[in-house]
Records
---
Amino acid sequence: MSFVNDLTLIPRKHMIRHSVSFLLILILSSGCGKDDSRQVPPAPPQNTAPQNPVTETNPDILLRDGHYELAENRLRLLFKVTPPEKQAKLHYQLASALHGQGKIPEALVEAKKASTLQPRNPEVFRLLALITFDSKDYQESVRLFRQAIQMAIDFQKATQKPVIGLHFWRYQLAQALIRLGKKEEANKELELYREHQEVIQSIDRLERTTAYRPKDATAWAEYAQALWRGQKLPEAMAACRTCLKLDPMNKLAHAVVVLCSLDRGLDAIPQSQHEALKRNLALHANQALADLDEPLGLLAAGRLALLLNDRERALKYFEKGQDLDPKNSLFAEWQDRAGGQNP
Amino acid sequence: MRASGLRCFQALLLFLLSWSLISCDKDKEIKSTPAKGSQPGIAFKEVAKIKGLDFNHDRGATGKYHLFETMGGGMAWLDGDGDGDYDLFLPQGQPLDDTFKFPRAGLNRYFRNDGGVFTDQTTSSGLGGSGYGLGATVGDVDNDGDSDLYVIRFGKNALYLNDGKGKFTQVLDSGLEGSAPFSGSAAFGDFDGDGWVDLFLTQYVEYDLRQAPKCQQAPAGGGQAVPIYCGPITFKGARDQIFLNNRDGTFRDFTEESGMVLGGGSSSKSLGVLLGDFDHDQDLDAYVACDTTPNLLYLNQGTAIFKEVALESGVAASGGGLYEGGMGIASGDIDFDQRLDFYVTNFADESNRLYRSLTPDIFEDASLRLGMVSGTKTMVGWGTGFVDADLDRDLDLYVANGHIYDNVGSWEERQKYEQRNLFFRADIQGGGENLSVKYSEVSASLGAEYRRPASYRGATDVDFDNDGDRDLCFIPLDQEIRLFENVSDRSGRHFLQILLVGEGRGGKDAVGARVELKTQGGTQMRWRTSGGGYLSQSDPRIHFGLGADQKVDSLKIYWLDGTVEEVTGVPVDSTIKVQKGRGILNH
């Protein structure tokens, strides 16, 4: 089965929510370095022994390891030997080094210079927003975080490359909103952030579980589900295949197969194969629906029914699914899409 | 020419003489005055053996890489025999045998303290115990005025009641065994306000000895993968628990009713826990450090019903939103704004976090700004606590470090299993509304013994010799205990130490009370907390450094039931016992 990256069946709001686990390391065109402890990914091993005097001179590594003062000194030297037109990254790094030392006013100056030199770089605007936050100008910080997030989303759309850690920016935006007393807006951002975090952590944990328990069909099914939630659809399908080899009747895996296929969309395959695909999905959906006790099976069957224009059946499945899993907002969303009552 | 040459020679001699004098001065300065400027010198001397503490921790590593083998090493200070000297309980590990049992008994240690000298009283105390000891906490469970002990073990935990003379009896079927085998920490406090202490028990991960996962790690540059401890990400989180006191030596599980299940506590990977009245609303709240899941802040709604608010309060994650490897917790009012600030130790490649309270329910991650990131990014932090080591009124900070992977150096060159402990000296800047505090990591000036690398876990502060300053104690895995006597230069500086004895709401331990001290130098606030650190309990007495102030202008106790008691006739340079409604009992 071949897929294309078409998420047309997913509502936009939902797509954003679930897109986070596509995240891969984004190397922005300007090549900004990692800044401070707020960055996410664990660093690769380097030859900097933590209990010995620091001999490292690479500012990126100095910043990563929290040697902000050394990084500042090194960067000031680099400014002297770098032509002005190539100093954009240095300004960004220097802002990070100063910020790391709590030198907020100086960091702000450098971050502003960096943003002037790289007006399309969302990471630079995020750093500027962070420093502005620490300077307690929360109004401006909210504006800058929103600008950075929008720039990142635009960048993702334009390049199909994800911006790593975008949900962390939402967390930071939420903190700025809380300082302004805008708790409702903050909670919306925190909810998105929390869901992204959960998905990422589930994938991480289940990846390890399936590694040490490769014959555990349930673990593979849960892994497939987590990957689907993170919209890693090919990986989710692969996990389903492994699961169904171990346990051909696994309801969750059958449900994930249907959901992945529906998320990919029929456009992914030639028109001539649409009917065959629908029949195949119906078989999977029937397996997923056995005993009507698997919420995701009900979601999958409901969505398939909707595709087959059986709205009444779809609504029935969504309602039943919501009864089984009241916390899952997807059932309400799909009831809305099906035009039914959203309790 | 000759005269000119002589002048040159004289000049050279003068220069060399001056230089040698300057150099000598420098050496002296480094030895005796580690702090800069006019700051008094902070200094510690390792005295464990000299003082009679003969204890070698054993994590019981079997080569099977069970996660609990690298997580223990707590301790608890308690005045077991009521003589005013703080005694020490030390839980011990041991190897798991092939039948999944811990075969040896009597391995824990209890050292009685008499005037600052310890003797092993394990047998007579009845605290030798069994199983695999991880940590301990202390509380007056039966309201009889002495300190009882709760031992955290891998498997079932154990409660011991004290007869007041330092003889303990295990309570079988106390209801406090814990639902999961792998508890993270525990703390006693009165959550429902009935005057009897309850228990908050954090649970780390679900762990099945028979089906424990196996993990491996290959060196970054390629090569043979080596077995390692599976980190928390491999496991499902477990549910924290709260137990209410039945007032008869037994407890009931109140977790479902408490609302904790609705918060993140149902699947968190919880380790350190701290109890106190954080929002000053006369009930006991809880802050929990979690490992790769969000930290939890449970605000009590008055009767052990909790609302979890860590995320919106800004203490769930780093300032950037990262869920970090939370281990231990320190707390104190670092900036004299009468609000409690938190410090959480984290894993390597993260950094420890200082959450500064802006309002009772909003905190900022002030780690970077206050200079507290330096030195922590390559460390794995565990036990920690704020102390005023040099009695200059501000709160310094100690941090125990050590990696969990005993072979980390073979696949991660930047990391070491054995790490050094850190010490941050506080430095007040400005005054009044412009007062701020900045921290400097000064362990380099504390001598080689303090910096001796090991894989430390538990860390506590205690005035074991009752001389009015806080000493430090660290447990390194598989090594001898380290007790650091505080020998800081305290000339011209004064202290006040207070043991609170409650009545009614809050119980005899008075956890949740606050103490406000006014002297010429200003106002200081301390909280009677419970738990804190990592798997350990520090000296429960409230400790104030007074700087040069020789007189107490005002001492107020805010008891947990809302009563505000002004204590008069407070002597400085004393340890006093204050009982609710009765003022100073003795000093």
---
Amino acid sequence: MNPVLPPEFADLEPFADWCLHSEAERYAKRLASSMGELQSFYDAAFPRLEQILVYLDALPLDDLPDDARLLLELSYSLVNVSFPVEVWRQPRVPDSGAASMDAVVEPAV
Amino acid sequence: MAHFPKPSEGSWTEHYPELGTGPVNYEDSISPEFYELERKAIFNRTWLNVGRVEQVPRAGRYFTKELSCAGTSVIIVRDKDGGVRGFHNICRHRGNKLVWNDFPNEETSGTCRQFTCKYHGWRYDLDGSLTFVQQESEFFDLDKDDYGLVAVQTEVWEGFIFVNLDPSNTTSVKEYLGEFGAGLEGYPFGEMTQVYKYRAKVGSNWKLFIDAFAEFYHAPVLHAKQATDDESRKLQGYGFEALSYVIDGPHGMVSSWGGMAPPKDPSMVKPIENVLRSGLFGPWDRPDIAGLDPLPGAVNPARSPNWGIDSFVLFPNFMLLVWAPGWYLTYHYWPTSHNSHIFEGTLYFVPPKDATDRLRQELAAVTFKEYALQDGNTLEATQTMIESRAVTEFPLNDQEILLRHLHRTARRYVADHEKSGTPVAVPAVR
């Protein structure tokens, strides 16, 4: 598969399936993943977060090149999975049962 | 042990003696008959916030709002003169819903030069006037001036668009919002245009979810797993006490400490919060805009240096939360029956200047959803058990004063409406 992320972040290519544009896609992937899968993604991406911020902050947020935009989307996924990994120890919010909440408006980028 | 001073009467609740201190009956949250009365006495009489001016930035921009609670749907549109207008979403010809896409009961938005009915092609200008009738000569003495869209009273306060479905209403929205409205004017709402909006169907009476967000007594317990273990134990040990409560007419507010941005002890926050400098209370650093210092007078009424968030409960179904780190949040509760409603939570930030800002806001939005999912699910459990009527009266503590006030206000509106048989002067409850 062709690399999609900036070359500096080639180590995150195995997790490129977390480059998801919408909150709904990110949340669905989180719920469909095992804790092992969430932990692997977190363990790879979290230590790189500070470097990701430095890299992306040097670029204009409203005009990101494709590879940088995908890196940002991967970072949104990292934020989303931080709850299961750091706190819940399960993909779903505890005590949330069948409750669901849809993101109906979110930023374009 | 009290951490924050209470009024001289000894409690917040007794400071407002009309509230009483006895157990509260929750029949108003489980009775289908009472809900029908609320629709007439409250949702067809009071000002309802349906959106923000940023949703209609230019002439021809519009959105629809489904108001099952009032038995109608409205169109909000920016007209050619820059005004914001509201209309009942109904074609004057034979009553088809005028503006909708694919699913008649789903809200929609867009841009148009005029509204065209899908059914027979009648067209209306942005000011509501009927401009075109298909095969007009087939009609009998039809004067188009008599068949404009039915207007709904629509007013804008600080960029918030309100409608009032009572044609005889004579109270402005500014007057209706009372001292909270006056004391919030000048807050830079218009600068905070980066929006995240969540929606959920909730299986409870609309007031029960307001209850959940109008007290923080539950926070150290229900959300215990949300914090690190040390932080969680610390919070449960403290319990919760607000800085201040204020009641003004049908509205109320709670002012709370918290946020601790940045936290005094970095080990008390989650790893990603430490890296991003953000969390439930939003990004730790205030955006660099005017209007946040000093804050308008209704915010942080105790003038506490530990202030973190104010929650305004604006009757009937609109909550406005102002957070110390410089962003705001709204909640809306749209009843669909006596035991169901649609909840909307919307976060508003100053647009991010770079990816770090953007990720900080993302973390705040994701955190909001994690909490709200827990809150929402608890409500269905509450609704079904209250409906059992195995227990009918519930003791509310001093930190639950806004719940006592909300249910009392709803009962008062219904009682006043029943008594008069005619529209009550608003605000009727002072």
---
Amino acid sequence: MFENLSERLSGVFDRLTKQGALSEEDVKTALREVRVALLEADVSLPVARDFVKAVQDKATGQAVTKSITPGQQVVKIVHDTLIDVLRGEGEPGSLKIDNAPAPILMVGLQGSGKTTTTAKLAKRLKDRDGKRVLMASLDVNRPAAMEQLAILGVQIGVDTLPIVKGENPVQIAKRAKTQAAMGGYDVYMLDTAGRLSIDEELMQQVEAVRDVSNPRETLLVVDGLTGQDAVQTAENFNDRIGISGVVLTRMDGDGRGGAALSMRAVTGKPIKFVGLGEKMDALETFEPERIAGRILGM
Amino acid sequence: VVRRVLDDEMLEQLEELLISTDMGVDTALRVTANMAEGRFGKRLSVEEIKRLLAAEVARIMDPIAKPLPLYSKTPQVVLVVGVNGSGKTTTIGKLASQFKAAGKNVVIAAGDTFRAAAVEQLQVWGERAGVPVLTAAQGSDPASLAFDAMGQAERDGADLLLIDTAGRLQNRGDLMEELAKIVRVIRKKDPSAPHNTLLVLDATTGQNALNQVKVFQEISDVSGLVMTKLDGTAKGGVLVALADKFGLPIHAIGVGEQIDDLQPFDPQEFADALMGLDPQ
Ligand SMILES: Nc1nc2c(ncn2[C@@H]2O[C@H](COP(=O)(O)OP(=O)(O)OP(=O)(O)O)[C@@H](O)[C@H]2O)c(=O)[nH]1
Ligand SMILES: Nc1nc2c(ncn2[C@@H]2O[C@H](COP(=O)(O)OP(=O)(O)OP(=O)(O)O)[C@@H](O)[C@H]2O)c(=O)[nH]1
Ligand SMILES: [K+]
Ligand SMILES: [Mg+2]
Ligand SMILES: [Mg+2]
């Protein structure tokens, strides 16, 4: 449905390449295309704007070498800059889970994939790292949310905190902490209800959960198909709760994944994992090169 | 009131305003251009400009704002489809409640036999709406469930049968084939069914919504759209691009997680919210 960035750029750069040198006007024309392509790939507008500015600054200062055409050079700058922004600090996929039992708090908008990702991560920690994991659902809102996590727990062979109806999320978080400590678990994961970032009551509730559990990791689970709203979500969740990383779900879809760039640019926090399906092993560590290629359509 | 000349720079800013609602570049350009026609160089206030843009958007959306059509045929089969987590199950609960309140005899079929606790979730909605939910075991064939549910709905003298389906991404060929099969099997029972196929879209979704509509329409003959989660910060501007490209009716919008949080689609209200204008 869309022209991807390579097509867009190749069109522009074909023209530019034939001219030999890269004038300021050429760079501008090319970067206009980059900007449109980023927007069509669902990169949020302010992020796309800043990104293009950064590329322009880099491109303008650079001498064109003989071995590479000016067009290729701009493509390379765009690509490299994108990877730079996307790459977070630290080992991809690593989680702070020393000091057992280490709490991991999962937050995000409704339907973003928190519960599924909680179970996928628990399975990964159990299978790859040999950790004993306890999962707890703090979702007292969505019908059968607790049952959903319990069923997934049975599927993957990970314990879930017994369901006690009538408790509030803070009470459940406290019970999870106690149970994790007494039961000798390495990690306990707190799956929370989906919430809008402007829902004051629910944002306060998750702050209270954070304050009693003191999570080692707070992961914002974001739908990889998210559009311009990514900025709001990233800003609000990060400001209110203080996230330590991002998980992008539904990257098995054919969305362009521009939300990845928005998330990184806005929060500065690493994207730790990507969800690539509904099955329990469909979770991979984030690879900036792959997402960069996808955003640019290369 | 400060008035500014409607010039190129101004137009670019307006385009960006629209793009930041997920309208997409193409549609944003077209909407601003239409608004600017005959007004270029005129002095206008920001409020005036936003009202003009909102009017332009409302004009595009007006013809597709239609409630879910009801037919005399019973049971009328409503198939609900969409990508994962868009709000299908919740929307079915809300719809069931509305139709029940309107005096209809409603039955729900829990056609998501895949996701953990999908059936339990729908059963809670059925209880809330006061509507029976037909289920099958997890992992069983959703097409056979749909077929059986049609027979059951007929025997029960139901007016409406709402069929939930598992979330599926439109690029997953295997899952889309499963959906095609559900439709085929439903048609075996009643060639005129499903009478409505609702595609449920999440307002936070960006440009991928265009692909969602395209492919779901090819596979399952989508007859109308519902957009959920418009109570959040997402504006759902992609609906304007969809109106432009597909012209499918928009039946309702989801504005919350409670049973009454389903509203008719109001083009003017939607357009005003899109432009950040106070409701008129
Ligand atoms: N295709 C695909 N589907 C996913 C992925 N992650 C989650 N899902 C699906 O997305 C839907 C929603 O997932 P949940 O885990 O229930 O989302 P949630 O954030 O817990 O939802 P709420 O608790 O209602 O806010 C389900 O159908 C999942 O199977 C993914 O990476 N790819
Ligand atoms: N804020 C808000 N949340 C909604 C709305 N509609 C649905 N939700 C929430 O979104 C999440 C997913 O809704 P579901 O109805 O389970 O979505 P689904 O499409 O059936 O999901 P799958 O069956 O997993 O594909 C739940 O937490 C719902 O409460 C809405 O209009 N506004
Ligand atoms: K909104
Ligand atoms: Mg959940
Ligand atoms: Mg569902």
---
Amino acid sequence: MNTQEILKALPYSYPFLFVDELSAIDENGATGSYTFNPELEFYKGHFKDNPVTPGVILTETMAQIGLVCLGIHLMGNTDQQSIGHVMLTSTAIDFMKPVFPGEKVTVVSEKVYFRFKKLHCTVSMTNAAGETVCKGTLSGMVTLKLNG
Amino acid sequence: MMSKEDLINRLKAIVSPYAQNKEALNSISEDTDFINDLKINSANLVDVILDVEEEFDIVIANEEMEKMLTVKASMTIIESKLGEK
């Protein structure tokens, strides 16, 4: 599966799609980016009069780019008829810097292992200045969902 | 050859960090089911199998992994793998 096919296979839409571009993907990892839309509803409440992207949303962004896109790619290599479906099973993330509305972030994931349907990755997110925003590990179970 | 008791104790040490039901863990036996008794989820079941591979220096195949849902089934597969060495 190429990067465009993977983006099309993602099961998300606004306001919960956090992938704009998938710039590289192979069996060992994925690289992609997302620019946080300032209109997203949660900025109104996190925080009052001081919008900052919530850590759970940063984690979700890393999961969509680093874990789900990679899982779909890995499954696409084993079965052409089905689309991979990834269920997040664990996260361990450290947060270093805030991400404000309108900021563009880049996520890089590296596969640690993919065995018995479990995909375990290290992930990191950098901002436009190249500073590490957050990093850690994510795991999910990858299953097949039949087309249609 | 390892005794059954030794093998169960080594398995108990492996599943211990993942077992949600500590009472069932304490009374672990050949009949213990990883999912139904110990309440280990499917993602952590994979960790159990990977830890078994490391502990016993064996490689488990996908079909074998799918059978390793109880202490007894795991012991059978581990013993047969060790016998092949």
